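Structure first, sequence second, as always.
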């Protein structure tokens, strides 16, 4: 929980997402780029996750768009720290150049679905465009688990890395 949360929650703790991001950016990504034939720029670099992993991925995309240009935000834990991620989305200036996949299963709970709808609306308000640089999939009947995320992952990849 600590590494996947960008802010510290009064009750739950956490808030070490910056350290996690630093490790990704300064250690893991340079290792991968040195060891493998990659296209290291943000247009070819994605980060993604589900639940708290979706939350930290969105946060790191906003904080480091020069590294991560494509973000998969699956069933994000928007609820974390009184929905603090919504403030980050609203105040980021300038708006980062990101291609964002967002999704939520309709059986994950009404509160989580409403939070994700709100995140989608905030992104639209900030200038992202549906089906252009933002995709939002509400998955009918899907729950908060790996099988649901795995079933949506091919769509996320197709959106984030469309054929040229």
């Amino acid at each position: 929980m600590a590494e996947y949360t960008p802010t510290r929650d009064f009750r739950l703790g956490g808030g070490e997402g910056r350290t996690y991001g630093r490790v990704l950016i300064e250690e893991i990504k340079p290792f991968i780029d040195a060891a493998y034939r990659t296209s290291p720029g943000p247009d070819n670099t994605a980060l993604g996750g589900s639940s708290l992993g979706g939350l930290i991925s969105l946060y790191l995309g906003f904080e480091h768009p020069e590294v991560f240009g494509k973000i998969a935000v699956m069933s994000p834990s928007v609820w974390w720290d009184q929905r603090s991620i919504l403030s980050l989305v609203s105040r980021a200036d300038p708006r980062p150049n990101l291609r964002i996949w967002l999704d939520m299963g309709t059986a994950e709970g009404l509160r989580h679905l409403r939070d994700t709808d709100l995140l989608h609306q905030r992104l639209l308000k900030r200038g992202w465009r549906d089906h252009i640089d933002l995709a939002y999939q509400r998955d009918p009947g899907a729950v908060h688990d790996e099988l649901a995320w795995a079933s949506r992952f091919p769509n996320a990849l197709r959106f984030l890395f469309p054929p040229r």
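Margin note: The CA atoms of residues 38 and 74 lie 25 Å apart.
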